[in-house]
Amino acid sequence: MQKPLPRPVATVLATALAGSLAACSFEPPLRVPQAPADKTPYTAGISPKETVAPGGPSGHAQKIAYGKELHEEWWKLFHSKALDELIATGLKNSPTIAQAQAQLKQAEATARANASIFYPQVTGNLQANRSKASAAAFGGSSGFHYSLITGSVGVSYYPDIFGVNRLVYRNSEALVKYQQWELEAARLTLTGNIVTTAVSEAATEGQIRATRAIVAQERQLLELTENQYKAGAVDYLSVVTQRSQLASELATLPPLKQQLAVYRHELAILVGAFPADARRQPFTLTELQLPEELPVSLPSQLLKQRPDIRAALSQMKAANAVIGEARAQFYPTVQLTAAFGDTASHPALFFNPVSSIWSLVGAVSQPIFEGGKLEAQKAEAHAAYDAVYAAYRSTVLNAFDQVANALRAVEHDAQTLAAQRAALQAAAEALRLAQASYRAGASDYLTLLTAEVQYDNAKIAEITARSQRYQDTAALLVALGGGWWNKADRKSTPVNTQGKPHPSAGALPVTQVKP
């Protein structure tokens, strides 16, 4: 007959077994696509380092500073106090930001609720009962009354032997971080939309001013043409044609004013106000300064700085924890419950030692046959991870695509503006010469009209090209992540879930990924 192990040895072995089981994790190592190297270029071909200098207002060259940190509030690179104030109002009052903040709080509350499983659950119970029992079964002729008072405290605890509780908590913790990055992405999107809408408003305002100047010029030419007609120098067709040209220019003003109203209303909505509250003065291109140096993060750093990439990574971590949960469902679940209290027929006897009651229960539940449900749940978890893995790759590729496109756009915008400014100067000179020749009677009205149309088109095109430099500069800064990581209050992951695992729960070995 085999002798039982001595109690100290058995205790040590049981403790070691429990510890080894507690250290066990069914969560697989996190599988993340390989990050690009710092030497990886954003664009095909040679990446731009400096743009050309188009000259004129906002016509300086822009230097691309690779590896330099972005300003913590990237929109301040445009040096517009009105824009800064508008963005501050938007970050404070935007319902989109408020929605993201509420979703974050909801995720935090869920994480705290899931963290409670690491602690014993204690409940109190007090029950008073007054009953009448029949005495017929004992040969009696009448019943009897009795009272019973029971009070107890129950404790239940689920030892996390196979790490299921930790995996559930890890999933909710990853979802909290996902909502943190969603909030950061909402801030970045909001600030980007405000800046681009403000630039669009400024461009439209510039086009309206240019069109009004053109209309004034057309009126002068119409007056000149009418005078020449009265003097017999030109025919009446020239007068009618000039009137038609003036009417055509006047017809372009209402659509521009409508577009300006749309941008103003949109800005009001972005900052959490009604369109009727948009009573401020419109932005103009002259009050915005084009940044001379554009800090561009290295490719490996972009993965850390883009909130949408960080959010996608958090979703991968949550899905990875779900795989662990599905695997752990194949193993036993342990529950420990205990209760102690008193029960008596009279309040005076309630605290008497003879009235005490207690119980201690240990239960183990092991799945045996569930019709393939557990295997299906595990396959579902793996498929869900594959889906978020592909979504992460897509998010990263889209981020690099946006940066690459914005870099090329900044480069080409400067070239376009330089060409448009040259065309505008040539058109202005041609119009001046045509007007002088027309006044002197050396050329016909058709020559003057052609010069007018060319100048009008060149003026509007120059304003459009100028505003496009601002638009694409803002798009590049947003595509790089916006510089949120340099703010003093956000240099670490911003929110604490306040749901710490119990110290005895141990730590799960998991591949650490710090994107």
From TrEMBL:
Residues 1-25 form the signal peptide. It comes from the Bacteria. GO terms for molecular function: efflux transmembrane transporter activity. Pfam families: OEP. InterPro entries: MdtP/NodT-like, OMP_efflux. It is found in: Cell membrane. It is a lipid-anchor. PROSITE patterns: PROKAR_LIPOPROTEIN. Gene3D superfamilies: Outer membrane efflux proteins (OEP) (2.20.200.10). GO terms for cellular component: plasma membrane. Keywords: Lipoprotein, Membrane, Palmitate, Signal, Transmembrane, Transmembrane beta strand. Residues 30-60, 490-515 are annotated as: Disordered. Belongs to the outer membrane factor (OMF) (TC 1.B.17) family. NCBIfam families: outer_NodT. This is RND transporter. It comes from Acidithiobacillus ferrooxidans.
